[in-house]
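Subject: Predicted fold for Allophanate hydrolase, 288 residues

User T.R. writes:
Posting the sequence so we have a shared reference for the thread.
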Amino acid sequence: MVKVLKSGLYSTIQDLGRYSYQEYGVPYSGAMDAYAASLANMLLGNDKNAAVMEITMMGPTLEFNCDTGICISGANLSPKLNEKPITLNQPTSVKRGDKLSFGKLIFGFRSYIAVSGGFKTEKVMNSYSMYQGITEQSTVLKNSDLLIDASSKSFDTKHAGVKISDSHFSTKHIEVFKGPEFDKLSKAQQDLLFSQHFTIAKENNRMAYQLVEPLENSLEPIITSSVLPGTIQLTPSGKLIVLMRDCQTTGGYPRILQLKESSINILAQKFTGNSIQFSIPAFRLSSR
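User M.O. replies:
I've generated the structure tokens; pasting them so everyone works from the same file.
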């Protein structure tokens, strides 16, 4: 069991998502940065879909009531075990009574705490991912108890770890594909999409990221159609909205671009005021 002494700013339990229920209007959800979440699980020897705790900008304080192992990946929020700094992307043994806390945000925006065997919270529709209206709790609450499996395995592996490339957090380049309505844009609009830098607006969360700079829009609304995490919609006012993991399953705004999966992970580590630029990946044909 893990006791939540402080919940942090916005902490949730997530796995890799809730699939096969979108026809009923159920969002995918799942870890915003699936790469970092999967890495933390891999380093602990967990299944990549094991439930982790996603923390945003400001971390929680957790007290462990059993022995286990942890690994923290993603953003650097200055994690400490019993007030001693611990290394990111490296398995660490935790003993009964130990306290995990966090400090200053150094880089990134979202961090992931994996525990041995994964968090065993409420599972709905084959997923542990928290979402309002689907799970009883939509965030991790102060004074709650989170079920985990005790582990007697030693995780003191000082030399077993990996380093995530700095570009995962620092790059401004977001690779995209053309969306279904992209070709309805004028040539000037298309060129502007890939030449301009866009700024993350203050309206950003697990559902969507809005961008500050508008794109002049004269397109007609579309018949309500399917959307996915990573779909970029263009509103009548010219606002660009990048849908994220908790997005709705349908929408009526033109879908002008679609982020690559890796680009969703990168964007999940951006926050208000950060700058991004869209690009289409170059495909190279191999020669023999």
